[in-house]
Design goal:
- The structure is a single chain.
- The protein is an alpha+beta fold.
- The protein is 32% helix and 25% strand.
- It has two domains: 135 residues, 60s Ribosomal Protein L30, Chain: A (2-Layer Sandwich), CATH 3.30.1330.10; 157 residues, Alpha-Beta Complex (Phosphoribosyl-aminoimidazole Synthetase, Chain A, domain 2).
- The chain contains ten helices and 13 strands.
- Strand 1 and strand 2 form a beta hairpin.
């Protein structure tokens, strides 16, 4: 006999211990009752992941459990927020115990790392889709936003770019390191918090650097110059691309710009705050790389090492219409 909705909630998603004092009532009532600490602003975000759209069909349940929370923590990180609570809406074709056990264990493993408590949600039957709403706190007036960059600001990104996109492109033949980057993205929560009062603007890279930096620039009617050779690429990415024959150079240049699914942070820093950034990097727990400058003229211009302009084939993932990846 299949588990009922309440069986699933009780067996896989209800914990007897409340690990946060700001949770007055969590799972088990009609709604959660939560308390925002004094002096803090509440940051709220929500993402939906759909089978065959946001992750390949057949992706392991553990990877889905991790990623569905990680992408929301990445949004909180881009605002400089401390994660606190999440709700989960889970639509599954059937109530298989192995799938649910793997999903929930990976979900809670990541939640525990960031002291995040699941406080409610919904479970229903249908095509596989997962929605998480995440809540976090940021001190009054210190939230990072897309708006605020100025001409002359330096542009940085955390981590490396293009790994997840290459794993998607090679459909399981990319090797363990690249596949892990696709299935288990690391939200840059510590980096986001360390950037409070330093970054003039920030955004997470989910749809590709060109697309997401474009959103940031659009907020202030600005442009940017990017140095393609400065874009951070992992060793696994570079070595794998070298084996792609005639497409190697195009992939090497294009994927870090437009592939998406990296969930790194892209942020801008004024010249006057560069020393503060250098000091704060010790708190990032990841690399941080300069990739270009903000310019007054709108548009993003990409340059190779020899100073030539480069036009990538795509500008990033499109949520409606023709998808550029996946």
């Amino acid at each position: 006999m299949s588990d009922t909705e309440f069986d699933i909630i009780r067996r896989y998603f209800t914990r007897q211990d409340s690990n946060r004092k700001d949770v007055i009532t969590g799972i088990g009532d009609d709604a959660a009752l939560l308390q925002v600490p004094a002096g803090m602003e509440l940051v709220v975000c929500m993402d939906t992941l759909v089978d065959g759209v946001h992750f390949p069909t057949g992706t392991p349940a553990a990877a889905i459990g991790h990623k569905t929370l990680a992408v929301n923590l990445s949004d909180l990180a881009a605002m400089g927020a401390e994660p606190a609570w999440v709700t989960l809406s889970l639509t599954i074709p059937e109530s298989g115990s192995d799938w649910l056990a793997d999903f929930s264990q990976a979900f809670f493993k990541l939640a525990d790392r960031y002291q995040v408590q699941l406080v409610g949600g919904d479970t229903t039957q249908g095509p596989l889709a997962v929605t998480v709403q995440a809540h976090g706190f940021v001190p009054d007036g210190l939230a990072l936003r897309r708006r605020g960059a100025q001409a002359g600001d330096h542009i940085y990104v955390t981590g490396t770019l293009g790994d997840a996109g290459l794993a998607l492109l090679l459909a399981g033949d990319a090797g363990a390191d690249l596949q892990h980057r696709l299935d288990y993205p690391e939200p840059r929560v510590a980096a986001g918090q360390a950037l409070r009062g330093i970054a003039s603007a920030a955004i997470d890279v989910s749809d590709g650097l060109l697309a997401d930096l474009g959103h940031l620039l659009e907020s202030d009617q600005l442009g940017a110059a990017l140095s393609l050779d400065d874009l951070p690429r992992s060793t696994a990415f570079s070595e794998t691309v070298q084996r792609c024959g005639a497409d190697a150079r195009t992939l090497y240049l294009d994927l870090p710009l437009s592939a998406g699914d990296d969930y790194e942070l892209c942020f801008t820093v004024p010249e006057a705050a560069l020393q503060q950034l250098a000091t704060a990097q010790a708190q990032f727990f990841c690399a941080c790389t300069y990739v270009g400058r903000i310019e007054a003229t709108p548009g993003i211009r990409c340059y190779t090492a020899d100073g030539e302009t480069y036009e990538p084939a795509t500008a990033g993932y499109q949520h409606f219409g023709v998808s550029q990846h996946g």
